[in-house]
Amino acid sequence: MPTNTVVLLKHVYDESQLKVDPATGGIDFSAVPGKMSSFDRNAVEEALRLRQQLGGTVTSLTLGTDAAVKSIREALAMGVDRAVLVRTSGETDAYAAGALLEKALARLQPWGLLLCAEGSTDTYTSLLPGMLAQRLGLPLISYARSLKLDGGALVGERSLERKTVTVRAALPAIASVVSEINEPRIPTLLQIMGAAKKELSVTQAESLGVTEQGYRTESMSGKGRERKRVVIEGPVQEAVSRLLDAMTREGVV
Amino acid sequence: MVFPFKSLSDYEIRTRPEHEAFRNFVREFMEKEVAPLVTRIEERNEFPMELLDKVGAQGFQGIGVPQEYGGQGGDQTSVVIFSEETSRVCPALVTLVGVNGLFTTPLQLFGTEEQKRRYLAPVARGEKRSAHATTEAVAGSDVAGIQTRAEKAGGEWRINGRKAFISGGDLADFFVVLARTAPPPGPKERWKGLTMFVVEKGAKGFSVARHMEKMGLRGSHIVELQLDDVSVPEESVVGKEGDGFKVAMETFDHGRIGVAAQALGIAQVVFEKSLNYAMQRTTFGRPLIQHQMIDSYLADMLIRLTGARHLVYWAASLADAGRTEYQLAASMAKASATESAEWIAEKAINIFGGAGVIVETQVERFLRDVEITKVYEGANEIQRLVIIRQLIKQTLGVDVLQA
Ligand SMILES: Cc1cc2nc3c(=O)[nH]c(=O)nc-3n(C[C@H](O)[C@H](O)[C@H](O)COP(=O)(O)OP(=O)(O)OC[C@H]3O[C@@H](n4cnc5c(N)ncnc54)[C@H](O)[C@@H]3O)c2cc1C
Fold this sequence. Notes:
Chain A contains six helices and eleven strands. Chain A is an alpha/beta fold.
């Protein structure tokens, strides 16, 4: 029996292009270009790799505005079979996103594997994988640095702070991946041109009948960090101990 | 009318979101795979073969080759994007890849089905490499002046001569070679009697005679090829016997825009580097960018860069729309982009001062590279002849050079 995979995909602000007004701390988001959340590319890559064994299709699922189409087309170019965009009018917090995605995932049944990244490169709350596992009542292999299929089960190495843990979960299951898991492929021109012809279906978020509401971001501002610019000079031995003293005084060691 | 075009809309540049996606992915590939190795490539004048294989596997040799022949499809805008983004990191790689286009284009335009099947797919997939041999020591711009000859003997052609300046000739498995097969009917018809052939590496009597050292594009090599009684079957003729001049010229018409984009990538990168340096380097107590003379340089660099970019992408748009005015635009783009890039690279060295001539800074190499873009695929003097010839043809319908 072929097993289908769904991979979550988020279109985020390109964090390297954020410009903070030094006077007000304000960020003009209208001028910031968007891109696929970096780790989502790893999740897509992993879905495509596992597809060879699972034999089913890979569908990407995105919650976002029309701007997300750019990232969705990239995933389609990489090899995702079809894409679904749940269209929202703006940012969605993690809680509401969990509720919306639960509904959207129900419409995509049958699937046996849900892949996502450990976090998105914009807000990085890392809340979604756990929330979805709880809502769907499925096992979650979080922070996976490797995934493989073994007799109908998913086996993953989890990258934890001081250790690596290998766990096994029966399908259907969810896994969130870390960036070390793979090297995302770069699509060819032919694949990029072909992606424009692949199926992308759009659903209005309101039509999913979700009433739950989480929190709303009221404002966001850049935080300046003053540097002390202390320069320690002198012979190495002496300088090192003075550096240590200074660091101890600052409470960093 | 907006002389020499019909209306303002003729100046439109048309791109699609896929083009932008392709640009981002080419940039990612170049920055990830090629950028860390450029210093080594420059130092050793060698492009690592494993990397060239990766470039091939990514389908870059197949841009512009139809999918049915193993290629990536794609239009001239895609060719330009590849060329610009690659050049921004390693101009020599544009040449290493681009020479394959000088082989696949004549086959696509004039080749038999059999030739297309045999040669296009392996080159497009990056499994084989190819080169184009028109130029000789005695004749470059004056293509009709070549002295390599081919004679029919039995069911075969026998080729004798020597080619020079052949890019990628050291690595190629397949070549197109231009030779004279009949004397010109008269002094005004010197272009008649030339024929293009496919010659495979390893053919008896065919060899790389000499490597030619040059000033830029290190990592891409040019060689002299010797042909001593090289026998090729009749099926090796590309296009019709006697039509070789046309085959060569149409090939260059197609390739020209890739060279323009190669220069554009150079202009882009040296401008970026210069702007960066001007913000960081301080003299007389303030950053260079606060000296008006430096700003004047930077502004002029950007003006020329932007002008060149418009010409290059506009020419590509005309080609993609199947417009005959493409030729005029491509020649303007080639002359403009290569000369703008040269000017910009030279000003970059001014801005960098002493650091600019230090190899490690990676600015001077672009000036060495850009010099070659002014010469090959039709020297800029020749582009100017083409511009006026095409202009008169387009507007008055007469060929001034034939008159
Ligand atoms: C790095 C490099 C790579 C190359 N790769 C290839 C390759 O892969 N395959 C290939 O076949 N060739 C290749 N060439 C050759 C290249 O196409 C020729 O060098 C070019 O066409 C100019 O020819 P030439 O060098 O013989 O100069 P010439 O034709 O001798 O010209 C000398 C000068 O006179 C000018 N000139 C010539 N005729 C006229 C005229 N009628 N009016 C005004 N000015 C004129 C030229 O513009 C030039 O400035 C390469 C050259 C270089 C430098």
